[in-house]
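Q: What residues go here?
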């Protein structure tokens, strides 16, 4: 071969190599841009659900069906590079505008699933709890057709009244969890909180059982939303119980009336006897009347000392109460309440 032909062959090989390198560089640039640029086609508020048995190709089909762009080759190569190809975990994953393919695959590899929340509020009844659970997105609703008795049996506590048994707090869950999963956790949390309060109770507590503590805590919870008043009201009710005085607490009347309660308590309601009428029956009602929080449990376990036996709302919009030792003082406080209440009604809003 002549030197001229060798030079031409060498130049051709060099050009071919340069073209190959350029092509590889271009391909790498496009691949890197795919991996780390915001994904195209992501709709705000959308998510991807990976179910048991879903392979990488099936997950990629779901992404494409959701409108997310990118070739199967690019997604597969990136998944293998990140070690995600055979390690995608079951769950629901957030798809957000601005998110990259790399971030999504890492989330699926490491199981960074969407966490949903449902909150049980202090003072709610079992009806309120069940309504909130029924509206919780992403939960599997296995208890929807169960009445309260069947629900408690399903939770492993057959024959137990459900009122007061679920601790108010925010519970985190993931798609695919059932409402029974959440209620199990809320029940166990209340059991632990009640046990801790019972063990920390004062030595002279009038309460004979943890169930009595739970019931009194539910009444305290419904009587005030003012944190510093809870121990004071708990102390007042404890003193009434010790001397055999009727509790005469309106929230028990309201609970006993159920759906018949129309927003106000009439004289006839106070006189109509029922297991929850603490104006006609001494002692505690037969069950809690709401879900007490930890603060109410602790207030009942450690009630504030004092001599007050009566209390009435101040009527000034503060949510606070007047406390009194004697009936005469209490009647004076009732007059103060009426003055404040009328003044509040007369004040333009």
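A:
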């Amino acid at each position: 071969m002549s030197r001229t032909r060798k030079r031409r062959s060498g130049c051709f090989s060099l050009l071919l190599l340069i073209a190959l390198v350029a092509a590889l560089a271009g391909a790498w640039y496009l691949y890197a841009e795919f991996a780390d640029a915001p994904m195209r086609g992501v709709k705000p508020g959308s998510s991807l659900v990976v179910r048991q048995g879903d392979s990488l190709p099936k997950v990629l089909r779901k992404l494409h069906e959701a409108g997310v762009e990118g070739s199967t080759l690019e997604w597969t190569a990136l998944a293998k590079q990140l070690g995600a190809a055979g390690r995608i975990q079951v769950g629901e994953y957030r798809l957000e505008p601005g998110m990259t393919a790399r971030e999504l695959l890492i989330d699926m590899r490491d199981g960074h699933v969407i966490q949903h929340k449902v909150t049980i509020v202090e003072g709610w009844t079992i009806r309120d709890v069940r309504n909130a659970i029924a509206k919780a997105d992403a939960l599997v609703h296995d208890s929807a057709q169960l009445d309260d008795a069947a629900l408690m049996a399903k939770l492993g506590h057959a024959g137990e009244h459900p009122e007061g048994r679920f601790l108010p707090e925010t519970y985190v869950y993931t798609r695919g969890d059932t409402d029974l999963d959440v209620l199990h956790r809320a029940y166990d949390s209340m059991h632990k909180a009640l046990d801790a309060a019972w063990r920390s109770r004062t030595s002279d507590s009038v309460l004979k059982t943890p169930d009595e503590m739970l019931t009194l805590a539910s009444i305290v919870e419904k009587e005030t939303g003012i944190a510093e008043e809870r121990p004071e009201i708990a102390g007042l009710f404890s003193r009434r119980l010790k001397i055999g005085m009727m509790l005469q607490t309106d929230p028990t009347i309201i609970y006993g009336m159920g759906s018949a309660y129309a927003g106000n308590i009439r004289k006839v309601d106070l006189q109509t006897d029922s297991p929850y009428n603490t104006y006609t029956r001494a002692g505690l009602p037969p069950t809690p009347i709401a879900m007490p929080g930890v603060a109410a449990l602790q207030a009942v376990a450690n009630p504030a000392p004092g001599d007050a036996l009566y209390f009435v709302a101040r009527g000034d919009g503060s949510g606070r109460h007047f406390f009194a030792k004697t009936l005469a003082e209490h009647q004076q406080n009732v007059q103060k309440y009426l003055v404040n209440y009328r003044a509040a009604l007369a004040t333009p809003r």
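A: Context that may help when evaluating the design: Confidence is low (pLDDT under 50) at residues 14-30. The beta strands are 46-50, 91-95, 116-119, 170-173, 310-313, 321-324.
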